[in-house]
């Protein structure tokens, strides 16, 4: 059978792994934490800090991505591999930690093209390298057969002897700051689901669409925030208001966001709004999957590169609940919910 038409049903597990392993860039210099990589029953990873930061995420076909979107775009294996790496690297980043290794579980329908799986491995490796997590290695994983594509990544990280930045440290008087983008992935989703044909998108619209398929978490910002003295931090995966409310609840405070700054964040989304008639402010407030960072810093701390102030932390008034306000008024944008949406 020609290589371009070969499916996973035509290979044994060992033969498929033999096509994946060379694409994982686990050579010298890739990750000093990996002591024993793919090939044995389990990997061995060093933990010189004495602690390990751990996170896990899953993407499932038709829940987290479509193989073919309504605008005609076909999701590539590279897209799914990139996004699987990016969203997990972002979770470690949100603790102020540095990713060291990951393991990947991939469930494949038998008709899946082998070329798609190879492309997936390339996307995984390129995201690790291009996003700035060169010290992270793919330590191993698992292959399985199922009715739909699904990928689960478990990732390990190190704090390099420092204390983690939690969600619970924001205090009244602190500055609320953002690193990365918000709303871009949501606008990209709108282009994929309801926009004009992918062939008709402008270059500006295509860049926004790509942020849904291949997010760009600011991986340098997490450790920089820790070093600068951030008091609280989290990954924005489900929307600025929903995730801001989680940080506020963990810290027992209210976050009050600056509407003028929020308005500035809508500017890059105008091209997508023109195509689908969407509301850029709704994307900024409620859109997830950009994987930027929301953080709080003491007022006397100089914000590290990549962060911009977007509001302040306020004390709770009598009988007031934690949450997010905009210019003193409650914000009611729902955001993304994996089970409700």
Q: Report the helical percentage.
A: 25-40%
The total beta strand count reads 13
- In DSSP terms, counting alpha (H) and pi (I) runs of 4 or more, how many helices? 10
Which term fits the overall shape? Answer: globular
Q: Which band does the percent of strand residues land in?
A: 15-25%
Separation, N- and C-terminal Cα atoms: 41 Å
Largest sheet: 7 strands, mixed
Reading the helices and strands in chain order gives HEEEHEHEEEHHHEHEHHHEEEE
Gyration radius (Cα, Å) is: 21 Å
Q: What ranges have pLDDT less than 50 throughout 5 or more consecutive residues?
A: none
What would you call the structural class?
Answer: alpha+beta
Across the major sheet, the strand order is 8-10-7-11-9-12-13
Protein model, in words:
- This protein is an alpha+beta fold.
- The chain has helices at residues 13-20, 77-93, 114-130, 184-194, 203-213, 221-228, 240-251, 259-266, 270-276, 280-286, and strands spanning 34-36, 44-45, 53-60, 98-108, 137-145, 150-158, 175-179, 232-236, 254-257, 292-297, 307-314, 323-326, 329-330.
- The strands form 3 sheets. Strands 8-10-7-11-9-12-13 form a 7-stranded mixed sheet, sandwiched between helices.
- Helix 2 runs parallel beside helix 3 (114-130).
- The protein is globular.
- It starts with 12 loop residues before the first helix and ends in an 11-residue tail after the last strand.
């Amino acid at each position: 059978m020609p290589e371009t038409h070969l499916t996973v049903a035509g290979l044994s597990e060992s033969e498929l792994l033999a096509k994946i392993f060379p694409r994982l860039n686990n050579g010298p210099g890739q990750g000093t934490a990996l002591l024993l990589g793919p090939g044995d029953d389990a990997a061995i990873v060093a933990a010189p800090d004495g602690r390990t930061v751990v996170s896990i995420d899953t993407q499932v076909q038709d829940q987290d991505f479509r193989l073919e979107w309504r605008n005609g775009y076909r999701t590539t294996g590279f897209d799914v591999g990139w996004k699987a790496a990016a969203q997990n690297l972002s979770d470690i980043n949100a603790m102020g930690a540095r990713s060291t290794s990951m393991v990947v579980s991939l469930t494949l329908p038998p008709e899946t093209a082998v070329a798609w799986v190879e492309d997936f491995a390339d996307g995984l490796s390129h995201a690790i390298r291009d996003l700035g997590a060169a010290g992270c290695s793919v330590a191993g994983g698992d292959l399985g057969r199922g009715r739909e594509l699904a990928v689960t990544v478990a990732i390990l990280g190190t704090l390099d002897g420092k204390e983690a930045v939690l969600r619970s440290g924001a205090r009244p008087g602190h500055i609320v700051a953002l690193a990365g983008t918000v709303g871009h992935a949501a606008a990209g989703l709108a282009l994929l689901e309801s926009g004009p044909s992918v062939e008709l998108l402008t270059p500006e619209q295509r860049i926004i669409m790509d942020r849904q398929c291949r997010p760009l978490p600011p991986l340098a910002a997490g450790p920089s925030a820790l070093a600068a003295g951030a008091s609280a931090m989290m990954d924005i995966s489900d929307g600025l208001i929903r995730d801001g409310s989680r940080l506020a609840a963990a810290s027992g405070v209210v976050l009050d966001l600056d509407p003028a700054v929020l308005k500035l964040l809508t500017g890059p989304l105008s091209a997508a709004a023109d195509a689908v008639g969407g509301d850029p402010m709704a994307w900024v407030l409620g859109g997830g999957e950009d994987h930027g960072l929301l953080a709080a810093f003491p007022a006397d701390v100089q914000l590290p590169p990549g962060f911009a102030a977007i509001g302040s932390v306020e004390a709770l008034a009598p009988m007031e609940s934690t949450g997010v306000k905009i210019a003193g008024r409650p914000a009611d944008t729902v955001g993304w919910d994996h089970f409700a949406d």
